[in-house]
Amino acid sequence: MIIAIDGPAASGKGTLGKRLAAHYNLRHLDTGLIYRAVAKALVDRGQRPSDTKAAVATAKALDPSGFDEGMLKTHAIGEAASIVSARSTKASSWLTTGRTYPWTNTFGSRSGWKVA
């Protein structure tokens, strides 16, 4: 089962997603956190968040085991993540469709799964 939740920033999507995943014993994938990780990596390297080629390359090299959720949830990174998701459509589609994700909401599992 795949449950997709959409809505404006700070509307409770993450909280609802985590609760539904726990209730139905499903894995949870926070795509917003992934966009933020891509944005932070781009900003840290001095690259523009709207640079599609850089965003796709960055997304492909992500290692979620190193995510620092506190650093990823700053206002500045949120703004950059909005640009990544809105302007870098190739990166956005690569992140959210057809990629095998080898982690779970706790980043502890290595069994792959897909978002389709």
Describe the 3D structure.
The chain has 116 residues and is mainly alpha-helical. The protein has one domain. It contains six helices and two strands; from the N terminus they run H-H-H-H-H-H-E-E. It has helices spanning 13-24, 31-44, 52-60, 69-72, 75-87, 89-96; strands at residues 100-101, 113-114. The chain has a two-stranded antiparallel sheet with strand order 1-2. Helix 2 packs across helix 3 (52-60) and helix 2 packs across helix 5 (75-87).
What topology emerges from the helices and strands here?
Blueprint (H helix, E strand, L loop, with lengths): L12 H12 L6 H14 L7 H9 L8 H4 L2 H13 L1 H8 L3 E2 L11 E2 L2
Question: What is this structure, in a nutshell?
Answer:
The chain is mainly alpha-helical.
Strand coverage percent: under 5%
Please outline the major beta sheet.
2 strands, antiparallel
Number of helices: 6
Looking at how many chains there are and whether they match, the oligomeric state comes to single chain
Beta strand count: 2
What is the rounded distance between the termini?
Answer: 11 Å
Q: Round the Cα radius of gyration to an integer and report it.
A: 14 Å
The count of domains is: 1
Order of helices and strands: HHHHHHEE
Helix coverage percent: 40-55%
What ranges have pLDDT less than 50 throughout 5 or more consecutive residues? 102-116
Spatial arrangement of strands, main beta sheet: 1-2
Structural class: mainly alpha
Output mean pLDDT: 77
3D shape: globular
